[in-house]
Amino acid sequence: MKSHTKQLTMNVRERMGFVNITSEVVAAVRESCVQEGLCLVNAMHITASVFINDDEPGLHRDYKKWLEELAPFAPSPEPYQPNRTGEHNADAHHKRQIMGREVVVAITGGRLDFGPWEQIFYGEFDGKRPKRVMIKIIGE
Amino acid sequence: MKSHTKQLTMNVRERMGFVNITSEVVAAVRESCVQEGLCLVNAMHITASVFINDDEPGLHRDYKKWLEELAPFAPSPEPYQPNRTGEHNADAHHKRQIMGREVVVAITGGRLDFGPWEQIFYGEFDGKRPKRVMIKIIGE
Amino acid sequence: MKSHTKQLTMNVRERMGFVNITSEVVAAVRESCVQEGLCLVNAMHITASVFINDDEPGLHRDYKKWLEELAPFAPSPEPYQPNRTGEHNADAHHKRQIMGREVVVAITGGRLDFGPWEQIFYGEFDGKRPKRVMIKIIGE
């Protein structure tokens, strides 16, 4: 069995933003020399996501608006409790649960075995500081 | 290490629908001859889901109603931006994020290591056309 | 390839509750002797979740309030259909979809390869009875 581990550092300048990291994951799969296996990609921070969807700017604007409706940013002590301890990112912990922490992708013939529109995104919900993404590949 | 790759083609005639694909995944596990390992099952399209829950028609009706409330279908250009480019499936991209892209299931003793009610479903949110599901099994 | 399988039994006395199971998963990784691999942790029941987030009581109170808003508990036959068959846990099936069924964590150098605040939680949405969690580890 082969394995390969790689971390990416993300720097999103806005509070909320999405970054296409597919090419970085493709490079890690190539480096791993794994032909058949699984590739895990996950946010290492609990106010961020890794998810697979379309690379369409309109869709990303819609996601931001929708996430803001489902879990609004609220810098005042209300309505979230963690905000009372001085942190103002409780909404980000909620948004991350909607969008998910991780994806697992099949590797077949040395490549990510993707459908026609699948692209891997990093989703940031409490940005303006560096954060990390884990890529772990196992297989043969 | 052994691996096995299989694709299913789904044809859901309604816009939104759920299909129990457990028996197809069970068959793929048998074909793989893997005794101990992991089985990834994911939608290869970004307006569909694979998820695990109960095979209960009332529950599925509730899911449809609930997803329609959280991310309503809207064929007009508003409220979603991608609809302005001529596509009318923005809601499907949102519903898929709630229900998830994939499941990973343990294989123990050559079988899916399931709890009492776990069943694997394909969730379609923009149907009336063929779509694919990936099954990837690795182990020994 | 090595593999290791372990089940935890959860007993949450409230209807909804979160339990930090990180130390149990760390112990299973140690028992597996896997140095490089993947660790799957999933709820074996369809009204429960396994998720990764912060070990912060205020956040957990917020999650409960938020999940109750997104998918309210309703013991009457309305608004959920499964309740008509005598079960009163339809809301729990919905809450579990928001929080997810499973997490997959990288194992590097014999340890869970975690970011600074990542902790693994069992999320119970229909408690007061024993339920199980699956831990499956594969690697080398």
What does this protein structure show overall?
Three copies of one chain form a homotrimer. The relative contact order of chain A is 0.39. In chain A, 25% of the residues lie in helices and 36% in strands. The mean pLDDT of chain A is 93. Chain A has helices spanning 22-32, 57-70, 90-99, and strands at 2-10, 17-20, 37-43, 48-53, 102-108, 111-112, 119-124, 131-139. In chain A, the strands form two sheets. In chain A, strands 1-8-3-5-6 form a five-stranded antiparallel beta sheet, with helices on one face. A three-stranded antiparallel beta sheet of chain A has the order 2-7-4. By secondary structure, chain A is of the alpha+beta class. Chain A has three helices and eight strands. Chain A binds chain B through residues 1, 36-38, 51-54, 56-59, 61-63, 65-66, 70, 98-100, 103-106, 108, 113-118, 138-140, and chain B through 1, 3, 5, 38, 40, 42-46, 70-71, 79-82, 84-85, 90, 93-94, 96-98, 100-102, 104, 132, 134, 136, 138.
